[in-house]
Amino acid sequence: MRMRPRSQSRQSIGFPSWTKRLVSVWNLENIKVVKRVIVSVVGATVLLIGVALLIFPGPAFIVIPVGLAILASEYAWARRWLGKVGRMASNVVSGRDRTTPEDSAV
Fold first, then answer.
1. What is the pTM of this model?
2. 56 and 46 Cβ atoms separated by less than 8 Å
3. Within 10 A of 44 (CB to CB), how many other CB atoms are there?
4. Position with higher pLDDT, 16 vs 76
5. How many angstroms separate the first and last alpha carbons of the chain?
6. Better-scored residue on pLDDT, 37 or 10
7. C-alpha angle with apex 42: 41 to 45, nearest 5 degrees?
8. Dihedral through CA 88, CA 77, CA 105, CA 49, nearest 10?
9. How confident is the model at residue 28 (pLDDT cuts 50, 70, 90)?
10. Treating both helix axes as pointing N-terminal to C-terminal, what angle do 28-55 and 60-72 enclose, rounded to 10 degrees?
């Protein structure tokens, strides 16, 4: 088998063509969508495991806020719920009444 020398015109300076195609496919919008899907799936899974741990033995009151914190990195509704859960937890720990006007607003 005889090897042909590569000509200078065929060599590209910089990145190979497959990396250029990869960069064009993975633009900023696609990366944002992929990140949001991954955060949604992981956060929802952890949150559902926490809800299941309310019935089964396990640390549900630790897992549920972790799931909400994961979802709160992408969603405002999860951020609000996480704030309410944090206020309720601090009220329970400090011994105050759990129903305050701030918590009763939906």
1. 0.61
2. no
3. 14
4. 76
5. 77
6. 37
7. 85
8. -40
9. low
10. 160
State whether the Cα torsion 26-28-30-31 is positive or negative. Answer: positive
Query: What residues does each domain of the chain span?
Result: 40-104
What's the token pair of residue 16?
Answer: 């190979």
Whether the CA torsion 92, 98, 102, 106 is positive or negative: it is positive
C-alpha to C-alpha distances, 98 to 17, 18, 20, nearest whole angstrom: 61, 59, 57
Give yes or no for residue 70 having a pLDDT over 90: yes
Q: Give the model's confidence band at 99: pLDDT under 50 very low, under 70 low, under 90 confident, else very high.
A: low
DSSP for 68-96, please give it.
Answer: HHHHHTT-HHHHHHHHHHHHHHHHHHHT-
Tell me the two tokens of residue 21.
Answer: 């195609």
Query: Which of 63, 69, 75, 66 has the alpha carbon at shortest distance from 36?
Result: 75
